[in-house]
Structure formats: C-alpha cells, structure tokens
Hints:
Blueprint: H1 2-20, E1 30-31, E2 35-36, E3 46-52, E4 55-60, E5 65-71, E6 76-83, E7 95-100, E8 103-108, E9 113-118, E10 130-134, E11 139-146, E12 149-154, E13 160-163, E14 169-173, H2 188-194, E15 198-201, E16 207-211, E17 215-220, E18 229-235, E19 241-245, E20 250-254, E21 261-267, E22 271-277, E23 288-294, E24 299-305, E25 308-315, E26 320-326, E27 330-336
Parallel strand pairs: 1-24
Antiparallel strand pairs: 2-27, 3-4, 4-5, 5-6, 7-8, 8-9, 9-10, 11-12, 12-13, 13-14, 15-16, 16-17, 17-18, 19-20, 21-22, 22-23, 23-24, 25-26, 26-27
Amino acid sequence: MRKIYILLIIGILSFQCVKEKKQLELHSFQPLxxxxxxYPEILGITMQIAKKGNLVFLNxxxxxxxxxxxxxxxxxxxxxxxxxxxxxxxxxxxLEISFEDSDLIVLSRQTSDVYSIPxxxxxxxxxxxxxxxxxxxxxxxxxxxxxxxxxxxxxxEKRYALLDNKGNIINTFGEYPAYWSKEKDLSSRIKGMFHxxxxxxxxxxxxxxxxxxxxxxxxxxxxxxxxxxxxxxxLLSKYSYNFVDNGTMLSTDKKPDVERGITALATxxxxxxxxxxxxxxxxxxxDFQIQIIDWDGNPLKAFKLDKKIxxxxxxxxxxxAYAIIEDPDDSLITFDL
Length: 337
C-alpha cells in the first residue's frame, strides 16, 4: 500500500512537471542581420509600430503628438496625429492602434474611447478623427475582427470578450491559463492582471493570436465568429508572481527567477513572429530572440539579436520586417524574412 502511495505521489509530481514544461523548444538561433532605416527625426518612446503600404505608423508614448506617420518612399514624416491634452481631438497616452478597412483605429486606454481616422485624410491639418464607441471599463486591448465585430481582452470573467460596433458585449469566451500551480485558487481579476493579453490578426484568414508574457494562444473564428475555437495554447516558459490584492488596489510583479518573456509579436499569412526576452532582470545579458512559428503553433526557425527589440511589424508584400530597437535610443530597423 505504501509503495502504491509513493508511486501515486511521483505520478502527480511528474504530471505537474510536464504541465509546466516549456512547450516551444527552439535550439538553433541564427544571428539577425538588419539594416538601419534613416528615420529623419529623433524617435521617442515607441509603443507600437504598424505598416500600411509605404507608410509606417509609430505609436509614441511621450511625444507631443502620439502617432507619427513616416513615408518611407519620401523619407519624411508625413503627419503627426493626436496632440497630448484634454481638449478637442487631444488624448493622453497610452494609445493602441490597429486598422479596419480604410481606417486607422485608435483606442484611448485611459478613457476607454475608440476613434477612427480615415487613411485618405492623412496630411497635416486634414485628419478627421471621430468617436466610434466606448469599450467596457474592463478592456485593455482591442482588435477589429470583421463585420463591425471587435475582440477585447482585459479583466472579464472569461479571458476574451466580443463587442459590437456600439461597444456592447456580445459574448465572452476562453479560460485563463493555469500553468502556475497557485493560479487555480485565484480570482479572474488577479488572473487577468497576470495574463494581460495583446492581440494580432491573421492578414487573410479568420484567425487571431493572443499573447501575454509567457502564454500564446491561436484561435480560429471561421466556423463561428461569436465562439472562436482554440487551435493551440503554448507555454513559452515557466512563470510565477508576487501580487497584492486588498480589494481596492491590485498589483503584480514577476518573481526574480522568471524570464521577462514575450515583448512584441507580429503576423504574416504564413507565420507568427514572437519577440522574446530570455533575461530575468532588466540588465540584459542574453540576446533577444525572434521565434517564428506557423499558424498551427509549429516552430520553424529563430534569430537572436544583442539589442532590445520593443516593437515589430511585418510587410508581407516586401517580405520584410520592421522593428524598433534600443541602441541605446530608439532606432528603426528592417530585415529580410
């Protein structure tokens, strides 16, 4: 009986070790060869980079204007959008940008307001920013899916919420990850803080990818847009947190032995490009990584770079990636895929 009991304990411990084991193993990293892009101004603190045709959109955290638009063909800043402030057409950082049809979509995370700016109105002084709707206060990120349907993450009972074009919740879905053994007893509010998820869409198919610092999930919504199906859940590395929740204040922090994890992500029709920071503190020792997987979650190849990569976007027509690195100030670079 005692032998059976010991074997049972060993089996349970073995299951826990397997459950928490890193699921994406890439052993061969090629050095990343890149070219600097001669951006004509000093870059600020870039939160996001996106590309549409020959235009590069830079979401600046601390600029006097929060969105800068760089015309690569003319090598000039075409426009600067959204002055900082509380007046008409002014906003306070942080913002989040995305594209929907022929519009630039801007989420003001402080006010929960979503704005649209027609791309054909871009030039100094001619921008037409209009309020679309307000997202629920629990929302942190927003992604236009299709047919005036929007995906958001934040602090919901489920991990994701679908919104209509008035900001109303249509449905919630998805479970919070629980690779850390202590998570099973925590509230969704605390789990939402642990797994603050950002979103990116497949450029052509009805799929999206969600990522927090250590977890990546791939979903398909081609069969039912209101109930996306989970294709794959990937643990990139183990994690654990210290947290405080006294009812009014909630704060979390990774424990000292935890890798910093995913810092950015971009998509192409064939691949998902994951920027991964393997360091356990801010004093960089190990190279940053770009891990490339397909849309079924299978690893393809990986690169390494001895610079801090903060933002990434893909131009599938050019077969190039564009990124922001700290060198030590922000710099714009490009590299072939």
